[in-house]
Amino acid sequence: MQRRFIFLFNPRSGVQKGKPLQQLIEERCQKEKVEFSIEHSRADADYSFLIEKIKTAAVTDVIIAGGDGTISTILAAIYHLPVNIGIIPRGSGNGLAFAAGIPKTIDKAFDIIFNGSAQRVDAFEINGKFSCMLSGIGFDAKVAHDFDRQSKRGLMKYIQLTLQNITSIKTYPFTISSPEVNIELDAYFISIANSNQFGNQFTIAPKASLQDGLLDIVAVEKANLLALIVRVIWHIRFGTFTTDFANRNGITYFQSKELTITNKENAPLHIDGDGKEGATAFHIKVIPSAYSLLMP
Fold first, then answer.
1. Measuring CA to CA, how many Å separate 106 from each of 85, 88, 109, 159?
2. Which end of the chain is more exposed for a tag (fewer CB within 10 A), N or C?
């Protein structure tokens, strides 16, 4: 079957090897002899127009050049359509791309787009809102909200905001209910992970998989902060999270297909790195085999 592509990207997303991204796309598609069109990412995050375009033009592949937030927003509009999704990592963290084994180098990302394997991967919903990678409630969401307000973005700005917020870090009371657990806890943050990392190869859920039909829940609880940071780094580095709830040592970890988190003090929420409106309760469930992702 003849492949037909749509590429979506921010026209200001930068250059590589002295060439604008659009030129690199055009050159590679001409080399591969595939039909393609180019759309720019939208400030209003409304990608509903893609649905009719994909159907009318018989598009087979939608390639997104951007970060996790952009990918998540576009996927939310089209993941139910029979197209392959490709990624050219252009964000601050690129957590989904790295979890899928997609390198940041554009030429290598192109190689996967044209020669990789289309594999079904999971996603999930939080109160009906789509998430493709990792969402969170609490401290990391506060940083995400602050990051969204910055005119200058990037990894260093994110690190700066994290360090600024650490001085006022606080815990929030949560109740987590699922078939596996029913627990009350005070936590700095809760991560709901479909992929194994925040981004930039920083792993938060070492056992998480894009294709296992499960969500990995990691809650970092109230404890001596310095000791807790050391424990978190150790667990992240060596993947030693445990589901032994009697000996959690400041970290609760479990896997589930569906859960509810009661958020009594309205801790902030982020979805795939973008700050979102919070709620006093979140119903979360996996969407198994949600879409087809081009992977190595």
1. 16, 6, 5, 24
2. N
Q: Which residue has the higher pLDDT, 129 or 208?
A: 129
Torsion sign (Cα): 232, 238, 243, 247: negative
Kindly state the tokens that stand for 86: 């490709």
What is the end-to-end Cα distance of the chain in Å, rounded? 21
**Is there a single domain that holds both residue 168 and residue 261?**
yes
Tokens for 205, please give them: 């859920």
Q: Report the alpha-carbon distance of residue 127 to residue 130 in Å, rounded.
A: 9
What CATH number is associated with residue 55? Answer: 3.40.50.10330
**Angle made by CA atoms 72, 76, 79, in degrees to the nearest 5:** 105
In this structure, are 91 and 149 located in the same domain?
A: no
- Whose tokens are 């709901």? That residue is 192
- pLDDT at residue 201 greater than cutoff 80: no
Domain check: are 101 and 209 in the same one? Answer: no
**Residue from 68, 62, 116, 51 nearest 84 by CA:** 62
Helix (H, G, I), strand (E, B) or coil at 117: strand
34 and 179 both lie in a single domain: no
Among candidate residues 176, 183, 191, the one with its CA nearest the CA of residue 141 = 191
Can you give the residue range of the structural domain that contains 65?
4-115
Q: What is the pLDDT of residues 22-75, one digit of tens each?
A: 899 999 999 999 999 999 988 888 999 999 999 999 999 999 999 898 999 999
Residue-wise burial string across 63-88, b where 16 or more C-beta atoms lie within 10 A, e elsewhere: bbbbbbbbbbbbbbbbbeeebbbbbb
Please name which of 1, 121, 130 lies closest in space to residue 59, comparing C-alpha atoms: 1
Radius of gyration for the alpha carbons in the chain, expressed in angstroms and rounded: 19
